[in-house]
Automatic annotation (TrEMBL):
Organism phylogeny: Eukaryota, Fungi, Dikarya, Ascomycota, Pezizomycotina
Protein name per Swiss-Prot or TrEMBL: Thioredoxin domain-containing protein
InterPro entries: SCO1/SenC, Synth_of_cyt-c-oxidase_Sco1/2, Thioredoxin-like_sf, Thioredoxin_domain
Family stated for the protein in its record: Belongs to the SCO1/2 family.
Domain Thioredoxin: 56-222
Key words, A-Z: Copper, Disulfide bond, Membrane, Metal-binding, Mitochondrion, Mitochondrion inner membrane, Transmembrane, Transmembrane helix
Gene Ontology annotations of biological process type: cell redox homeostasis; intracellular copper ion homeostasis; mitochondrial respiratory chain complex IV assembly
Organism, scientific name: Hortaea werneckii
Molecular-function GO term, any one: copper chaperone activity
Subcellular location: Mitochondrion inner membrane
PANTHER family the UniProt entry points to: AT19154P, ELECTRON TRANSPORT PROTIN SCO1/SENC FAMILY MEMBER
Amino acid sequence: MAAGYKTVQEAKSRHKSGPFSWQAGLLFLLAGAGLTVYFRYEKARMARARIAEANKGIGKPLVGGPFHLTDHNGKEFTEQDLKGKYSLVYFGFTHCPDICPEELDKMAGMIDRVKAKHGDVMLPVFISCDPARDTPEVIRRYLAEFHPDMLGMTGTWQEVKDVCKAYRVYFSTPPDVKPGQDYLVDHSIYFYLMDPEGDFVEAIGRNFTVDAAAKVINDHIADWKGKINKG
């Protein structure tokens, strides 16, 4: 009888099963699946890293840069105040009848999903493209309808023009508007994600759902290796 087997039947059974058991086969399949998941994750992570690095540009940033505004609490706010956390920047105006409210509702959902996963690591910013009507108090009351974490910004017409230029945002008001006359402001519709060093990471368009947009943000935050402020 072959050494190591107690019975002929045991030896035959071992011979039929071959050198690999079903347990070994299962472990092999699980290991293969694990490697597939890992490589897919790494591929996605490297793609995000390439996007973030490419958007920083060389020398002058592609999106973002120096600006001087006033927040909805009446305090001075510059690009330096964005540093330390991720920031999500949106340009709009409080008299917008439909698109801005829809996008700010989405922004509120993004804020909650990011906080649930990473804590208080992102500053959501609303910058008005309509400084003639959007005073700090008007913006403060407006944003209170969407999310308490949102911080609104306004400024002089020139200050708003400068920050829009820095972020490559198009905006236009009708010419020859009379005092008290209602009007709409045409503007770009994107969320601009900035990293804790104030560099542009990625633009999130209207085609993104709340969940898809939050995933983009959460994935970038998870990839971040530097310091990030919480609270």
